[in-house]
Structure formats: structure tokens, C-alpha cells
Amino acid sequence: MINIKNLYYWSRTNLFSNWYNSLISITIIFGFVYFLPPLFNWLFFDATFKGSSSEECYGDGACWIFINVWFKKFIYGLYPDEYIWRINLAFIILIFSVITAIFSKPKIRRYILIFLIFIFPFLATWLMGGFAIDIESLEIYIPILDEVDTRVWGGLSLTFIMSIFAMLLCFPLGIFLALGRRSDLPVIKYVSVGFIEFWRGVPLITVLFMASVMFPLFLPADTYVDKLFRCIIGITLFEAAYMAEVIRGGLQALPKGQYDAAKSLGMGYWKMNSLVILPQALKIVIPGIANTFIALFKDTPLILVVGLLEFLGMINLAKTNPEWLGFAAEGYVFAAAVYWFFCYAMSRYSQNLEVRFSTERK
Predict the structure, then answer these.
(1) Could you report the per-residue pLDDT of 144-199, keeping only the tens digit for each?
(2) Which candidate, 272, 257, 283, 304, places its Cα nearest to that of 350?
(3) Residue 44 and residue 66: Cα distance in Å, rounded?
(4) In this structure, what is the dihedral angle of CA atoms 326, 332, 333, 338, given to the nearest 10 degrees?
(5) What is the pLDDT of residues 261-290, one digit of tens each?
(6) How far is CA 331 from the centre of its chain?
(7) Which run of H or of E encompasses 291?
(8) How far apart are CA 136 and CA 156, in angstroms?
(9) In sequence order, what are the residues at sequence separation of 6 or more whose Cβ sits closer than 8 angstroms to the Cβ of residue 350?
(10) What sign does the dihedral 341-346-351-357 (CA atoms) show?
């Protein structure tokens, strides 16, 4: 039961402690009262949920039939229905690996991370694309799946593919760039600085355009690199530059005594960084790393400019269908809810990691 007296003191302390806090609180309360009821009416109370065509939409509320009809396309794009199990299998392997890594011992977690970084990208690419692999010389038989062109990949699954592959690749690359920028060797230092400053100085949309249109012009006539892979490489290099600066901030936050202590134990450069320096530096910059990953996830809709229909691209395609003209708002609200859910999940997980690895005494 609500204690009226406690509620009164809480509101006086937190909402109406002075005149400007009172003004802000009254404005916010007025905004809630004025805007929320019409919003809830449009989203839920006056909305249409059941049906199979736009003709069944009625009233002034949202028509969620649009989402129901196009849901599979929003998730898988134009991927053939008979091969959707391949996408599901790839993501099941990923989810199982991540969950196992979270709850396993450090020694086992190390091998799982190696699998995720160096093996899973090639396994998932082969599984979803079914690209032929020349293994005759090895005299090993592996069934080759039917090839599925990357031009039909799309929807939320393509958003995840772009994001996960770029995250797995940009993180270790960012670590090496951060270490390289702090190196005492001039060649390594200035190459790292040049790489970081170059990629931070160009917009991501320009990187994607160059990867899709200009890059093939510099390749030999018989060389072909798939557009999707070119975009993944472009996003990886772009985000690695930002990741390097985030990690460098953690490296600079450590006191010099940590380096001296590691050297006094006879540790070499790589052993010192892998066992002493990097674990502490990465713990410090967990919020920055999570922020970079969230930004990467939200930047994936930019691949629409090169003709790849990820989640938001499929919504833009669906809203231009003659039968569903005028239902763009429902699609964008659905997209906003999906992006918010996954970004919030990444944020909460990063906060849990901060608490888990915190060494502060309370």
C-alpha cells in the first residue's frame, strides 16, 4: 500500500525542491498527460492487429497487420524460404558459443573466443552463402550447399551479420592499432597514427560508397570481391579506428607503475600487455567499447546506399508496395522498437560487465 506521507516527502525532495525543479516537473507531467493518451490510443487501443491485407485495417490507430504480413521479409529479406534454416543454424551456433563462453572457465573461454574470431565468420559465410570450396586436393568430402547470392540477403539477419562480423573483427584490430600508436618504434607508431586519423577523417557513407563502387576499379580484371564482404571490410576498418582510440584511452589511464611492475617480473612486451596491461585497460573502457558497438549496430542502415536491403531497407521497400502505401509510420515505429531493444540490451550487458569486473572496495 502506498504511504501518502512518504510519497509527499519524496515528491517535495525530488520533484518540487525549488521553483525551477517544480517548473520542469510540471512541464514533464503536462507533457505526459497531453501526449501519452493519444499515443497509446494509436499504438494499442485503436490499432488493428489481426488480418492479412491492408483492406482489413480500420479506425484511426496503427495497422500492425503491415508488420505481420511483412515480418518474415523484415527478418530474412529476400532470402529463399527453403534455405532459411541455414541462417537460423548459423545464429544458433553463435548464440550457443556466446552463452558457453559467458558461463565457462577462462581456459575454455579462450578457445571459444578463438573460434568466434577466426573460425565462425568463415563457417557462417559458407553456411549462409553456400559458396563452393575447392577441397579436392585435400581428399576430404564436405557437402557443398546450394549457393545463395548475397544480393538476396537482407532484413534483420543482414543487420546482425554486418554488426557481428564487424564487431568480431574491429575489436582485435583496434587493440593492435592502439598498441601500435603507443609503440616506441617510429614506423609502427606513425603507420598506426596515419591509419587511425585517415579512417576517422572520412564519413562512413563515403567508405561504403568507395568499397562498393570505386574499389572494384582498382582490382585486376578477373578479380571479384562480393559487395557484402567489401562493405563488412569497410565498416570494420572504419570502426577499428574509433575502437583503437577508446582502448588507447584505457592504456593511458594506467599508472606507469603497472608497466614497471610487469617488467620487474621479467615479462616481455606481449606477455606484459596480454596478462597485465590490457585486462586492466579494457576494464576501464568497457563503457566506451559498448558505445562503439552500439554506434556500429545503428550505422548498418547506411549500407542501403550501396543496394543492400538490411532491416530498415526492407521496411523502406515494403512501404513502397502499392498495397501498403501510407503505412510507413508503423514500419518505422517497429524499427525503432527493435533497435532500442538490442541497443538497450548491449548497454545493460556492458553495465553488468562493469560491476562484474569492478575491483573498487565498497
Answers:
(1) 678 888 888 999 999 999 999 899 889 999 999 999 999 889 999 999 999 999 99
(2) 283
(3) 15
(4) 150
(5) 888 888 888 889 888 889 899 999 999 999
(6) 20
(7) helix 286-299
(8) 36
(9) 286, 287, 289, 290
(10) positive
Residues 306, 172: Cα–Cα separation, whole Å: 27
Residues 286 and 352: their CA atoms lie apart, in Å, by 10
Rounded to the nearest 5°, which phi and psi values hold at 148? Answer: -120, 115
User: Does residue 313 sit in helix, strand or coil?
Assistant: helix
Q: What Cα–Cα distance (Å) separates residue 166 from each residue in 148, 204, 329?
A: 21, 13, 30
Residues 98 and 103: their CA atoms lie apart, in Å, by 9
Q: For the chain, count helices (H), then strands (E).
A: 16, 0
Cell 518540487 belongs to 16
Cell numbers linked to 314: 526492407
Residue whose C-alpha cell is 502499392 = 322
CA distance readout (Å), 229 to 150, 151, 235, 267, 303? 9, 11, 10, 39, 12
Identify the sign of the CA torsion 349, 350, 351, 352: positive
Instruction: Tell me the CA end-to-end span of the chain in Å, nearest whole number.
Output: 33
pTM: 0.86
CA 54 remoteness from chain centre: 33
Bridge partner residues of 77 (DSSP): 153
3-state secondary structure of 77: strand
Burial of 151 (0-12, 13-18, 19+ CB in 10 A): middle
Angle at 228 between CA 349 and CA 290, to 5 degrees: 15
Q: Over the Cα atoms of the chain, what is R_g?
A: 25
CA–CA separation, 72 vs 54, rounded Å?
17
